Hints:
- By secondary structure, the chain is an all-alpha fold.
- It is 71% helix and 0% strand.
- The longest helix is centred in the middle third of the chain and has 28 residues, at 84-111.
- The chain is globular, with a radius of gyration of 22 Å.
- The termini are far apart.
Amino acid sequence: MNEPSTASQKELIIEAGRTESQYWKDLWRYRELFYFLAWRDILVRYKQTAIGIVWALIRPFLTMVVFTVVFGQLAKLPSHGVPYPILVFAGMLPWQFFSNALSECSNSLIGNANLISKVYFPRLIVPTSAVIVSFVDFLISGIILLGLMAWYNFVPDWRILTLPIFILIACAASMGVGLWLAALNVQYRDFRFVVPFIIQFGLYISPVGFSSSIVPEQWRLLYSLNPMVGVIDGFRWAILGGQSTIYLSGFLLSLTLVFLLLWSGIWYFRKMEKTFADVI
């Protein structure tokens, strides 16, 4: 009597993310999928549009004009010795990146439901690729800032070399909040209505159209509980130079909150990831 072979007795189980180390290796193995999703979303965004990427320039430019008139001309708020449009746009750049990333991330898993429900791949790739698409818009919008600097003959000082550091912090803030919203949107579809409100409300409480230095000293630390305050202040410090300063205590608080959001966002996303294919 032949005994069953050892191979036939073995049971092969394929489970997403059995170990953390294997999961992060899978992220590298599926890097081509990451490139494909990011490139696809970039093409879809501007497909069949009359003026293409100019849309990425019109919205921040018009917002900058409105904020300049309201806060610079009517309210006469200080601008640290630099032209007010440049002050506004230095804050508009990171905010636009952050708000676009939230919109894209929150809907990224729902938009790729067919892919998620059929094949295995690290789901973290999907919202990350959405952030990259928003970063492309960020780079395009930077053209306006360069144009403003040329128009006003504004030359940044050595601080501009530190800008990549603050860009990384903006990416971390976008990823942290974006992962929370992406996971929550799968579980609770009501979040598709909540996200636009969060973005609109966040614009009002963030120092986009004005400098955070106008906030009374006793409220500065509390105001820095908004993590985008530190990000925007960092951008302005790097771009404007001169009299622009960073409220160090508030910046460190915002920075701590950014990385706390990133860590908790990855943790919650990984916790809920195994249920995405069933719920979505």
